[in-house]
């Protein structure tokens, strides 16, 4: 391409009015408001949000709607299909599945959310540090993660059972002790890739603090994989809770969680499919809505996605 | 490179030592021992068995004894299957898990990447939605349920495949599918998410405007830049899958290594617990090492050999 | 750039290595299993000639050993039934019948047994089975260096305990002696009327004398030499075991199966699916399981194949009688009386169990017939009103205003959990008390139980030999199994009397009295007597479970209807 040359006579001086056209005319709105505007125009995401709210309300108040309770056995009416008395049917001890499902949903969703939150905080901080500093810091933390990840979690859980009382806190603790590591590795990989980008170097050159670079520049740009990993954490925590129950640390009967209900139902799912379908459907629908809403949220928060 | 690798090996060795030590003391402080039974073994016999296995020694002595044997490459005999050495148990059961596992890794990687790319290229179209639904079901249906359904439909009802065992090549299909379900779904989600970001990035737009065809953009730029989280994920995933899944092996009656990770602990089979933990540790660390090396291949700007934060 | 290239080639090398490793590993099932498949599954298509010749059953998991001295579980025991044979065998009624010993003589004082080994008894390699083999095997099991957990089953024999506990290293002091190749003399500490029953127990099985030169002999099919109706032909660890008929077996004419195939499937639904797709001839207890929820359905739909058989095992809850509130007998009784056992066996366990109101299960021989028929288990009855009164009185005696917080613990299992949930709910509805439920990992539960760190705990007990004593001696003061705090000198005296007497009538009377004391004090709350359910394909005959639920397939045969 030929070199362009400019001469002063090719330029005109702007008059005052014309200067204003360079100013943004659109009303300045905050990033959050902007995000919300975009989110609320995403109909599927909003529908997901509504379903999520309904599920949460059902988990909180569902057990109160029915006249049944979650623990009374009706041995003469066990394994009934859904009917007018037992809306979701009954289980192998004749307990009402409607109340049990929503009670279980309440417990399981809490477990899933708390575990995801713990994983998020620990994983992002430690993964961020590993990825950003690299070198010896990375080597040591990374090895620490690998060692922790390799220790049989069953041993840790049994130890927890011995020294702690079963409670929501213990369950989340048991799930989070090693749960955050996958997140940390994902974040580490992303940060290692992102930290070589020009804008990071620019920020470094401008003397921005490490924390600022990490949390203002790097983490937001790694949000995609982080959100996806979180959406895996929730269901896996819900099912891991069932395994904790198996070891004696999870929800203790007669209380139910969705995970333990599915575990119980799996043995007879060909005979009494409803015992599995309702709790499984609650998990799947919730997860689906989480994901769609999460995608919508990410699209809304991420300016690059603007159409 | 050689210096880098040898350094890595040295630190891996140290890590394995820490892992062995932590696991050793952890398993010793939890209640129970290999000779606890519902039909209680008389005290004298128990004492004698403890002496036979050196369990009557102070813990630090047992620890040193174990380390000493370990340095000589001796993982000891199983305390439950008393006629089998730990090495032999691992060797004979790992074969099954590794075969199924490697297939599952390949299947889930292929399926996940393809689904993810399709979804990303069709962002907000029906194909994208279908993929999301499949992927979400994939992560929210536990593998024991997937395995049971596959077994019931294809084994018991349609009778196209055996319900269990590994006697025919076709017997691999169901366990591999059951194992691949979740990782494939996760990889699809991960690929889709990062692909979308990369596809909207400036340089891809530039490349597009330069008139490169869509496919070349995809392969050359987008996938390579989007694949990093997938690479991160497949490291530990491979380690987990090839060391077996308790439920899938149980449901399909496969004599793999997966169940030992649970069984050795319920039996308090100390030597086997240690052997399995170290075995898993080595596989995981190797997988993580390969991941790091792969980073450099995927994105040359990532340099493993030096700290990057300050420079 | 150079780093990148070498990294690339490193990854490539690793990949190639992995592939080579996988490619080189032997196929899990190679040629030999293909040939056995011809004998089993393909047999159905190739006509009557091979159908039913091989018996196929599931054993759930890898046997922990095939060395009789070390055996302690029913998976190993089930294999031992085929591979080994003791001095005696059990028939379907639980009676001891001649096996490797063709006859025996008991001295008048009941202290000496002299067994005559049959001349045609042979090992699977053709060597004769002699009295020396038994002396060697039993003393080997007692040798502390062997590390047998069940060695105490030999303690009835003179000097056995001292030798096993290391008080003497002189094996000659043990009362087991081969007088000649055919004659084995056994001297007992006290007349033990059930001693013959013990000689069919797997730890009493003989092992070939060559085992002393090969430490790992029990690890592979090739090095296991047995004297039973079958011999090991293939052992794929963790997957399957195949037995073939032993042509050196003295009674081989009565052995009709050409082989027995055992699979190791630990999932009960998978086991059932294999049975339904004709890959198994037998499914269910003792080494397998029919999913409990399927039992009511299968009992109807597979009437001809479904069998329920009561076995000599008891299911019960035990109380920690050293702690409030179960240090009060009225509280214990109230809890025992306030549940509906019939509903539990009908609706919860569903496998044909029998509600229990005593400790010793049916199937155990008493004086002449079944002990439980001679001594009815009517030690208490279910009565909610009376239970309420007892509970109120008990709490008043303890000066408690309300029932304290207690927890029922059980080892993790779906079955135990369901029973616990049902019982706790019955207590809640009938007595208005809240009892927590906590499942524990088995080792943790056992540890807590021995440390008396529990309030109510699930427990179960299966017979070791065919005599009420296998149950009654559990609850002697400070007995290894007695983790309840129950201590009664009167009870101890009665057990001692039954243990030293050679007179069966006197023994049974003493044990009856002891059981009454036990049930009066109620450190344990009986729930039900176990039963085993299984399904057997039509045409298979003479395969049965003995009194304690162990399967005998050795004389089974197939006859198409």
Structural class of chain C: alpha+beta
For the secondary structure, the number of strands of chain A is: 0
The proportion of strand residues of chain A reads under 5%
Going by CATH, the homologous superfamily of the largest domain in chain C would be: Dipeptide-binding Protein, Domain 3
Assign the CATH class of the largest domain in chain C: Alpha Beta
Averaging pLDDT over every residue of chain A, what do you get? Answer: 86
How can the largest sheet of chain C be summarized? 7 strands, mixed
User: What is the subunit organization of this protein?
Assistant: heterotrimer
Helix content of chain C: 25-40%
Q: Indicate the percent of residues in helices of chain A.
A: 55-70%
Main beta sheet of chain A: strand number and arrangement? Answer: none
CATH topology term of the largest domain in chain C = Dipeptide-binding Protein, domain 3
Pick out the low-confidence regions of chain A.
none
In terms of DSSP E residues, the strand content of chain C is: 15-25%
- End-to-end Cα distance of chain A: 32 Å
Shape of chain A: flat
Your description of this structure?
The complex is a heterotrimer of chains A (307), B (311) and C (561). Chain A has 307 residues and is mainly α. Chain A is built from twelve helices and no strands. Chain A has helices at residues 16-20, 31-40, 43-65, 97-133, 135-150, 153-163, 168-194, 198-205, 210-221, 223-247, 258-266, 274-301. Chain A starts with 15 loop residues before the first helix and ends in a 6-residue tail after the last helix. Chain B is mostly helical and 311 residues long. Helix content of chain B is 72%, strand content 0%. In chain B, helix 5 (126-140) packs across helix 7 (173-199). The relative contact order of chain B is 0.14. Chain C is α+β, with helices and mostly antiparallel strands and 561 residues long. Chain C folds into three domains: 54-67 and 77-82 and 214-307 and 535-561, D-Maltodextrin-Binding Protein, domain 2 (3-Layer(aba) Sandwich), CATH 3.40.190.10; 85-206, Dipeptide-binding Protein, domain 1 (Alpha-Beta Complex); 330-532, Dipeptide-binding Protein, domain 3 (Roll), CATH 3.10.105. Helix content of chain C is 32%, strand content 20%. Chain C is built from 18 helices and 21 strands. Chain C has helices at residues 2-24, 31-39, 41-45, 74-83, 131-142, 160-164, 195-198, 268-276, 295-301, 329-337, 341-349, 371-374, 384-397, 414-431, 442-450, 469-472, 489-500, 504-521, and strands spanning 54-58, 88-90, 96-98, 101-106, 112-117, 176-180, 183-187, 230-236, 240-245, 259-263, 282-284, 306-319, 354-355, 406-411, 435-440, 456-462, 524-536, 540-541, 544-545, 551-552, 557-558. In chain C, strands 11, 12, 13, 14, 15, 16 and 17 form a seven-stranded mixed sheet that branches. The termini of chain C are far apart. Chains in contact: A-B, A-C, B-C. The interface between B and C is large, with 64 and 70 residues.
């Amino acid at each position: 391409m030929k070199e362009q040359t400019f001469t002063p006579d090719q330029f005109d001086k702007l008059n005052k009015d014309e200067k204003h056209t360079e100013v943004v005319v659109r009303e300045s709105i905050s990033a959050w408001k902007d995000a919300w505007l975009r989110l609320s125009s995403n109909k599927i995401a909003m529908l997901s949000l509504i379903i999520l709210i309904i599920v949460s309300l059902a988990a909180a108040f569902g057990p109160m709607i029915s006249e049944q309770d979650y623990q009374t056995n009706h041995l003469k009416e066990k394994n009934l299909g859904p009917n007018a008395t037992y809306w979701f049917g009954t289980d192998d001890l004749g307990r009402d599945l409607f109340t049990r499902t929503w009670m279980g949903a309440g417990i399981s969703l809490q477990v899933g959310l708390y575990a995801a939150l713990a994983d998020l905080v620990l994983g992002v901080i430690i993964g961020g540090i590993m990825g950003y500093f690299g070198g010896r810091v990375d080597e040591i933390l990374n090895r620490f993660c690998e060692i922790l990840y390799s220790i049989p979690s069953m041993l840790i859980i049994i130890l927890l059972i011995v020294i702690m009382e079963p409670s929501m806190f213990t369950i989340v603790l048991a799930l989070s002790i090693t749960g955050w590591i996958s997140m940390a590795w994902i974040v580490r990989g992303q940060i290692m890739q992102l930290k070589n980008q020009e804008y990071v170097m620019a920020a470094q050159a401008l003397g921005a603090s490490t924390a600022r670079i990490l949390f203002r520049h790097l983490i937001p740009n790694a949000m995609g994989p982080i959100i996806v990993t979180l959406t895996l954490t929730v269901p896996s925590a819900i099912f891991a809770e069932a395994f904790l129950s198996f070891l004696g640390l999870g929800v203790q009967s007669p209380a139910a969680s969705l995970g333990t209900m599915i575990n119980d139902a799996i043995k007879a799912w060909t005979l009494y499919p409803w015992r599995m379908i309702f709790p499984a459907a609650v998990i799947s629908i919730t997860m689906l809505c989480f994901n769609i809403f999460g995608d919508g949220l990410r699209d809304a928060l991420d300016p690059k996605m603007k159409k | 490179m050689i210096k880098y690798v040898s350094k890595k090996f040295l630190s891996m060795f140290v890590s394995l030592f820490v892992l062995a030590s932590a696991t050793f003391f952890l398993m010793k402080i939890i209640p129970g021992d290999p000779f606890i039974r519902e039909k209680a073994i008389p005290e004298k016999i128990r004492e004698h068995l403890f002496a036979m296995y050196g369990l009557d020694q102070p813990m630090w002595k047992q620890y040193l004894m174990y380390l000493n044997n370990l340095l000589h490459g001796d993982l000891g005999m199983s305390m439950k299957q008393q006629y089998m050495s730990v090495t032999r148990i691992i060797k004979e059961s790992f074969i099954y898990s590794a075969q199924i596992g490697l297939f599952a890794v390949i299947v889930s990687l292929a399926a996940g990447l393809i689904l993810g790319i399709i979804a990303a290229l069709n962002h907000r179209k029906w194909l994208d939605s279908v993929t999301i639904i499949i992927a979400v079901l994939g992560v929210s249906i536990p593998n024991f349920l997937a395995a049971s359904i596959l077994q019931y439909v294809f084994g018991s009802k349609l009778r196209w495949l055996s319900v269990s065992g590994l006697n025919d090549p076709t017997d691999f299909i169901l366990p591999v599918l059951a194992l691949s379900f979740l990782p494939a779904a996760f990889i699809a989600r991960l690929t889709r998410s990062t692909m979308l970001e990369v596809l909207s990035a400036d340089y891809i737009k530039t490349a597009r405007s330069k008139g490169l065809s869509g496919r070349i953009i995809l392969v050359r730029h987008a996938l390579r830049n989007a694949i990093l989280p997938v690479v991160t994920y497949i490291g530990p995933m491979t380690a987990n899958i090839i060391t077996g899944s308790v439920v899938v092996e149980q449901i399909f009656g496969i004599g793999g290594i997966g169940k030992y990770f649970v069984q050795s602990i319920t039996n308090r089979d100390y030597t086997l617990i240690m052997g399995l933990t170290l075995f898993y540790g080595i596989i995981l660390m190797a997988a993580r090492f390969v991941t790091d090396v792969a980073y450099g291949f995927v994105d040359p700007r990532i340099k493993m050999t030096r700290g990057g934060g300050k420079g | 750039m150079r780093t990148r290239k070498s990294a690339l080639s490193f990854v490539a090398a690793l990949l190639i290595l992995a592939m080579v490793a996988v490619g080189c590993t032997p196929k899990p099932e190679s040629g030999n299993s293909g040939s056995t498949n011809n004998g089993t599954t393909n047999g159905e298509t190739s006509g009557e000639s091979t159908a039913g010749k091989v018996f196929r059953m599931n054993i759930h998991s890898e046997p922990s050993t095939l060395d009789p001295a070390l055996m302690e579980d029913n998976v190993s025991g089930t294999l031992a039934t085929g591979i080994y044979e003791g001095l005696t065998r059990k028939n379907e009624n639980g009676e001891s019948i001649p096996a490797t010993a063709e006859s025996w003589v008991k001295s008048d004082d009941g202290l000496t047994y002299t067994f005559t080994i049959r001349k045609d008894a042979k090992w699977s390699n053709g060597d004769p089975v002699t009295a020396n083999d038994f002396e060697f095997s039993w003393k080997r099991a007692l040798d502390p260096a062997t590390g047998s957990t069940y060695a105490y089953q030999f303690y009835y024999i003179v000097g056995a305990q001292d030798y096993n506990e290391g008080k003497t290293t002189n094996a000659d002091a043990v009362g087991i002696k081969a007088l000649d190749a055919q004659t084995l003399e056994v001297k007992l500490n006290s007349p033990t009327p059930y001693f013959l029953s013990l000689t069919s127990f797997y730890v009493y099985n003989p092992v070939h004398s060559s085992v002393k030169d090969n430490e790992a002999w029990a690890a592979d099919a090739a090095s296991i030499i047995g004297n039973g109706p079958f011999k090991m032909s293939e052992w794929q660890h963790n997957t399957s075991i195949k037995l073939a008929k032993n042509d050196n077996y003295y009674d081989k004419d009565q052995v009709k199966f050409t082989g027995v195939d055992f699979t190791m499937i630990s999932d009960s639904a998978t086991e059932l699916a294999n049975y339904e797709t004709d890959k198994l001839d037998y499914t269910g207890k003792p080494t397998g399981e029919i999913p409990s929820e399927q039992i009511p359905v299968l009992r109807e739909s597979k009437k001809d194949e479904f069998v329920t058989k009561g076995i000599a095992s008891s299911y019960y809850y035990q109380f920690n009688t050293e702690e409030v509130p179960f240090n009060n007998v009225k509280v214990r009784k109230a809890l025992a009386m306030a549940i509906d056992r019939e509903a539990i066996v009908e609706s919860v366990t569903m496998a044909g169990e029998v509600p229990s109101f005593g400790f010793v299960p049916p199937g155990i021989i008493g004086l002449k017939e079944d002990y439980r028929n001679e001594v009815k288990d009517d030690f208490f009855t279910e009565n909610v009103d009376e239970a309420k009164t007892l509970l109120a009185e008990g709490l008043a005696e303890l000066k408690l205003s309300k029932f304290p917080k207690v927890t029922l613990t059980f080892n993790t299992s779906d079955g135990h959990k369901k029973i616990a949930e049902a019982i706790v709910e019955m207590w809640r509805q009938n007595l208005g008390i809240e009892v927590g439920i906590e499942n524990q990992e088995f080792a943790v539960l056992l540890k807590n139980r021995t440390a008396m760190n529990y309030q109510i705990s699930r427990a179960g007990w299966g017979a070791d030999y065919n005599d009420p004593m296998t149950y009654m001696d559990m609850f002697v003061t400070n007995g290894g199994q007695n983790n309840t705090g129950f201590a009664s000198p009167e009870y101890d005296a009665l057990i001692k009397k039954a243990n030293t007497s050679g007179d069966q009538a006197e023994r049974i009377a003493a044990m009856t009295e002891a059981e009454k004391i036990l049930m009066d004090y109620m450190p344990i709350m009986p729930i039900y007597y176990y039963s085993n359910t299984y399904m057997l394909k039509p045409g298979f005959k003479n395969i049965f479970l003995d009194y304690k639920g162990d399967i005998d397939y050795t004389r089974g045969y197939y006859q198409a209807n």
